[in-house]
């Protein structure tokens, strides 16, 4: 019985020391941290046309995506520079009704487009500590983010299921990021918003064997993304 009491005391002591280490503020010239989280994409659509005819009846539904990142913070008193290497997976779903006619060709209404993008991203943010009272902190940061979309998956449902992906205009992108960070010791929470500085254009084709024609759907949008992540400073 005494042995179990000793083991319990040692376990509680270890847990207390670990908690104290986590709650201890981590202020070094260089910090390395890792974080994981969720994102929600709600793109701003600029062009959504079939054979040049606008598709006005469309609804964008956000889907939960994921992210993971490794970050280096270079600290200058209250200011800091924060480059990161991150991975993002974003989901979006667009429901729409196709125009009943495109030129002389009849097209059945109704369909949906599900988009999943996997990307490698490198933001470089400049930040400022608004509050830094150990072990708590509050900071704001902003800056550009370079993006490489290494995988783009599209799936059509409904009568639009015959469309197939032709290609994107460019796999690279540039976004602007604004974020708020809350720190508690070595733990931190980041809330960020980002938008694209250019449009992403995707092209899809539908082959109509009956009339020997090909219908082209053009989907052009700009990034509009909210993210939440939880991280730890090593």
Would you give an account of this structure?
By secondary structure, the protein is mainly beta. The chain has one helix at 2-23; strands spanning 30-41, 44-50, 53-54, 58-76, 79-96, 101-102, 105-106, 111-133, 136-157, 164-168, 172-184, 187-196, 200-208, 213-222, 224-233. The protein has an eight-stranded antiparallel β-barrel with strand order 1-4-5-8-9-11-12-15. A hairpin with a 4-residue loop joins strand 13 (200-208) and strand 14. The chain is elongated and about 70 Å long. The relative contact order is 0.21.
Question: Which key phrases capture this entry?
Answer:
five-stranded antiparallel β-sheet, mainly beta, 234 residues, 1 helix, eight-stranded antiparallel barrel, Porin, 9% helix
């Amino acid at each position: 019985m005494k042995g179990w009491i000793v083991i319990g005391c040692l376990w509680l002591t270890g847990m207390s020391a670990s908690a104290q280490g986590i709650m201890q503020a981590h202020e070094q010239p260089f910090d390395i941290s890792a974080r994981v989280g969720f994102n929600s994409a709600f793109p701003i659509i600029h062009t959504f046309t079939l054979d040049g005819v606008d598709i006005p009846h469309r609804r964008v539904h956000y889907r939960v995506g994921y992210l993971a990142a490794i970050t280096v913070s270079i600290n200058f008193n209250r200011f800091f520079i924060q480059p990161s290497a991150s991975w993002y997976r974003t989901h979006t779903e667009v429901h729409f009704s196709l125009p009943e006619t495109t030129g002389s060709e009849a097209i059945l209404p109704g369909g949906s487009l599900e988009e999943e993008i996997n990307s490698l991203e490198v933001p470089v943010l400049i930040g400022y500590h608004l509050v830094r009272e150990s072990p708590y902190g509050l900071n704001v940061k902003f800056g550009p983010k370079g993006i490489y979309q290494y995988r783009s998956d599209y799936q059509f449902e409904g009568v639009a299921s015959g469309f197939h992906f032709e290609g994107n205009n460019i796999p690279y992108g540039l976004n602007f990021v604004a974020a708020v960070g809350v720190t508690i010791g070595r733990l931190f929470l980041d809330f960020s918003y980002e938008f694209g500085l250019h449009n992403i254009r995707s092209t899809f084709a539908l082959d109509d064997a009956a009339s020997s024609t090909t219908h082209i759907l053009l989907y052009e949008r700009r990034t509009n993304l909210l993210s939440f992540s939880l991280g730890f400073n090593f």
